[in-house]
Each structure stands twice: as structure tokens, then as C-alpha cells.
Amino acid sequence: MRALPASAVLLGALLLGGCGGEHSSGTPDFGTTPTTTTTSTAPEPSDPPDPTESVSGTFTSSDEPLPVLDQLLPTGLVPGLNAQWKWQDGDTGTPKSDPLGVCAKADLPSIGADNVVGRTYFPPDDSDDNAAEQIAEFPDANTAARAWAVLKSWHDGCAARASDHPGLTVGALTPVAVRSGTARWYLLSWKPAGEETNRYESYGMVLTGNRIAVLLIDNSAKRHDYPPGSDPMVGMITAAVGWLH
Question: Which of 7, 85, 176, 219 is the 20 to 30 A CA-CA neighbour of 127?
């Protein structure tokens, strides 16, 4: 199905983990190295999407051009959950005011962003796996740095959300080497009541100048066991940095 999982809140927000293991819908095992190259060299952006395109669900429609829309990661560059996984086009536009991700306590405008654009990515099967990106533009680099600290505080306090997500495990913030700016990510896992598989949420962040990109991959699987440095979120961060300018 195409509904964004409530657990990710993603799709409330975004419109913003990657998991290893056996996929609940019968697709090949996750944990194989994604086919998208996780290098810091990204192709030059092509023509940006039409900023007035119709959006639905997690976005607010707008007839005005949206700032930095052309810096959102194209669907074809989002790493798959396994070698056969190909994300499908979701929605693009201005996110609604819901927080993005389990740990988030507010949307990005609430922590100082002037402008926010977002894109969702749908699964190639009938699962509720999803991915997303939001790019927030702040008045200046200092405001962006303060928001960056807020994002860290949300991670640090995320264990308190265990009442809503039984068995919630919050992974450590892990830095990602990128060619410009600063990047990091973490992994959440829990087992929804009545489910046979775990739920994983990978949450990535990139800070460059007065902009922050937040990225999310949310999916179900029995395990998350990608080789070091090969997690889909690492590849998604690396690719996203190449489109931020």
C-alpha cells in the first residue's frame, strides 16, 4: 500500500531505518549492498521538477515557486533496501506541519526554518516501507547551527518515546564523511504490537551553510545487517550532499 507509516510520522511531516534482513512482503533479503554507489560524487542536477505540480497527503499545495526544490534527491538516486529494490516517485512540495520521524518533536519551521521543501519515495511493492527527504532553509548559518543542535537533542531524548514504540532501541549518532558540510545518522528499531517483523527507521541529517537536509528510510524487516558503510542511509546522505548547493 502507499500509505506512509504512522510510526515514521514521515509522512505527516514530509514530507523525511534503512533496514537489513528479510522483507516481510517476500522480496529478497535486505542487507545486501545497495546498488546505488555511495561515493561523494553525485551527478549534476537536471531540470528541477515543476514547482507547481499537484501534491497530496503530506504536502500543502502552492502556486508559487518553491525555494531549493531542485536540490531534493531524485528518486533514481535513493539507494534501495537491496540490490533489486527501486524506489518509486512519491510526492514533492511543501510539507505539512507534522514532525518527521519518531524522535522529532516539531516540524522544521518550528526550530527556525524560513522555507522547507520535501519529497517522499514509495516502495516498489505493496508494503508500507517509505523514504523521504526535507530541505530546510534558515535565515543564516547561526540559526541553522542552533537547529542542528536541536536535532541532536531530539535523538538524545528519543528513548522517552518507548511508550509509543515498545522495545524502542535508539542507535548512536554516527558521522558520515561528506565532501562539504557535516553529516550524521542514526537507526531506530522496535517491534510493533502484533507484528512478526521489526520496524526500522534510519534518520540522516546534513548541515551545509544555512541549510539542513533531513532524510528518512522507514521499513519492516527481520534484521538490519548491512556491512559497515553500506547502509542505504549512508548512501542516501552521500548522494543528497551532491545536490545541495
Answer: 176
Type of residue numbered 239: A
Q: Which residues contact 135 (CB under 8 A, 6 or more apart)?
A: 68, 71, 72, 116, 117, 118, 211, 212, 213, 244
pLDDT in tens, the chain (245 residues): 444 444 443 344 444 333 343 443 333 344 443 433 333 333 444 444 333 333 334 555 444 555 689 999 999 999 999 999 999 999 999 998 889 999 999 999 999 999 999 999 999 999 999 999 999 999 999 999 999 999 999 999 999 888 888 889 999 999 999 999 999 999 999 999 888 899 999 999 999 999 999 999 999 999 999 998 899 999 999 999 999 98
Domains and CATH numbers, the chain: 6-39+56-241 (3.40.1000)
pTM exceeds 0.90, yes or no: no
71 vs 118: CA distance, rounded Å: 10
Burial class (CB in 10 A: 0-12, 13-18, 19+), 100: buried
